Amino acid sequence: MLILLPPSEGKATPTRGRPLDLDTLSLPELTDARRKVLDALVALCREAPEDARTVLGLSAGQVDLVVRNADLPDAPTARADRIYTGVLYDALDVATLSAAAKRRATGRVAVASSLFGLVRLSDRIPSYRLSGDVTLPPVGPVAAVWREALAEVGPAAVGNGLLVDLRSGMYANFWRPGPELSGRVATVRVLHEHNGARKVVSHFNKATKGRIVRALLEDGADPRTPAAFAADLERLGWTVEIGPETKTGTQLDVVVTEV
After folding, report:
1. Which residues, including other chains, have CB under 8 Å from residue 244's CB and lie 6 or more apart?
2. What is the residue-wise DSSP string for 85-138?
């Protein structure tokens, strides 16, 4: 099973740790694309900081993020599960997982990244700022860079198992599994039910996805189909409604009334 998570916009900034070494990251097939995006981002932020602020969609009060990007080659790194923060990652809370669950997380979870394509939770990366919708001169849209780079790497990372795709729409654009994987792709939509009405609420969506991943890792479940995945979620206490299989996979609706 491969569980794909979105990155967080906000990130923790380590104060010490060895600098970034692209050659140590998992999925080494992505190294050339990673270097291309990294070099372009660093050059932009070093040579044209005002242009960088515009390109990156930052406000005047976020100049520090441009400086941070300019220093990426020498910046301290930490494990990705310590860099990414926010509601989903707080709910997942990797640091407090059992030893067995941490081992599963290392092998089963990956994070979509505008800078690195995909990273495993154990990969050491610096804090950076680059959204998935940025067009980065001179390489162009970063999403297009990763669509090309992940075309073969994505399916290989899934292997013969189930893909649980929890990415947001922006990061799903980096790689969309083809029809040959459709029977082994499950996406999750979290619906908040209140007074008989259902709607998607960002906080409930992120927190519930984090809790789902945590529960799966602790439980050790390794479902091979969307139906088996839905059954595991129900066994673990969630209310799940499973949709029909389409050429892009199967959507599961997880209905919650509270976080």
Report:
1. 250
2. -SHHHHHH-GGGS-HHHHHHHHHHEEEEETTTEEEETT-EE------TT-EETT
pLDDT tens-digit map of 185-221: 999 999 988 888 888 878 889 999 999 999 999 999 9
Tell me the residue range of the domain where 234 lies: 2-256
Per residue in 85-105, pLDDT tens?
Answer: 999 999 999 999 999 999 999
Pairing of strands 185-194, 163-165: parallel
Distance CA 87, CA 90 (A): 5
Looking at 128-194, list the stretches that DSSP marks H as alpha helix, in order from N- to C-terminal side: 142-158, 169-172
Two tokens, residue 184:
């082994």
Q: Are strands 197-199 and 2-5 parallel, antiparallel or unpaired?
A: unpaired
- Looking up tokens 């969506």 gives 205
Strand partners, 193: 198
Number of domains in the chain: 1
| Separation of alpha carbons 237 and 45, rounded Å | 47
* CB-based contacts of 16, cutoff 8 Å, min separation 6: 76
